[in-house]
Amino acid sequence: MAYKVQAAVVRAKDAPVTIETIIVPKPGPGEVVVDVSTCGVCHTDYLYVEGGVGDNYPYLLGHESTAVVSEIGEGVTNVAVGDKVILNWRAVCGECRACKKGDLKYCFNTHNAEQKMTLEDGTELEAALGIGSFAEKTLVAAGQCTKIDADLEDDQDAAVGLLGCGVMAGIGAAINTGELKRGESLAVIGCGGVGMAAIQGGKLAGATKIIAVDIDDAKLEQAKTLGATHTVNSKEVDAVETIRELTDGFGADLVVEAVGRPETYEQAFYARDLAGRVVLVGVPHPDMKLELPLADVFSRGGSLKSSWYGDTLPSRDFPMLVDQYQLGRLDLDAFVTERITINEINEAFDKMNAGKVLRSVVEM
């Protein structure tokens, strides 16, 4: 028998999020139904609202979650009923060209549930990032569930769930994509949730200089508490020149751009050392364009990368980072600015867009 649950849905571009009754089918082969515990309010969800991802409305929003497995379908062996999981949107297929090359973190054909959740009138819902967890229950592919064996307190679920997207994206941009090494320097442009996570990634990796760049002094002060050794207000000083001054005139070994705008990417490009690395993890709007002199791209060498989901392999990275959290080396609690109900998502989007929170987290 299918489940009727409450969930957050956006029906049209720029429409407000509404709380609707949806139908979650029983899991089929390779599928899992989970009881959602927490779900972070991520900028990617807002991209669905404003049409930045597509126009397959209505969308069932939410993807940054902890949950408990409620029911499993035929053939599911990686999780069992009652398991606590973090949901992820990289359910590795094992068969695409990336997987066959051993690059599972780039899987080009990640699994989602085959069945669709629907509104009560039968209208099919498109689940955000194949998850759709602003809901009391949701249906996902079994591979989208990463089991967490750690003994967590209930109030820690909200923090750990953020590994499902934004925090993992930032940490992974520094450690996985940027391959930050002990003793290197890191500059992070943009101190929202993802940028702050990149700073934490720099701390975990053993960077000696971690330079936080933003236009908000309050964010820069918070960046210091999360591992930044230096801060730069780019509204007051030239960010590129200041980063160079802080790195003996050379530029940072790695610059993570966590804004997703052409002007901040250009700062990142010129703020790195010769043969240094730039990692773009900020999500640009589809209509944005970048112009750089090709001679500068050639002459400065190094690498320019984009980070997809922090180049994470959830089965490898999530348990390891939960361990780091429990050991006190990773401050996930700092990312939870407020805990809210599902009815407060529109207000949470406003706070997020105004830069007033790192993460609002819905507790079901």
UniProtKB/TrEMBL annotation:
Transmembrane segments: none annotated. Its EC number is 1.1.1.306. Keywords: Metal-binding, NAD, Oxidoreductase, Zinc. The keyword Oxidoreductase applies. Residues 17-362 form the Enoyl reductase (ER) domain. GO terms for molecular function: mycothiol-dependent formaldehyde dehydrogenase activity. InterPro entries: ADH-like_C (IPR013149), ADH-like_N (IPR013154), ER (IPR020843), GroES-like_sf (IPR011032), MycoS_dep_FDH (IPR017816), NAD(P)-bd_dom_sf (IPR036291). PANTHER family: ALCOHOL DEHYDROGENASE, ALCOHOL DEHYDROGENASE CLASS-3. Belongs to the zinc-containing alcohol dehydrogenase family. This is S-(Hydroxymethyl)mycothiol dehydrogenase.
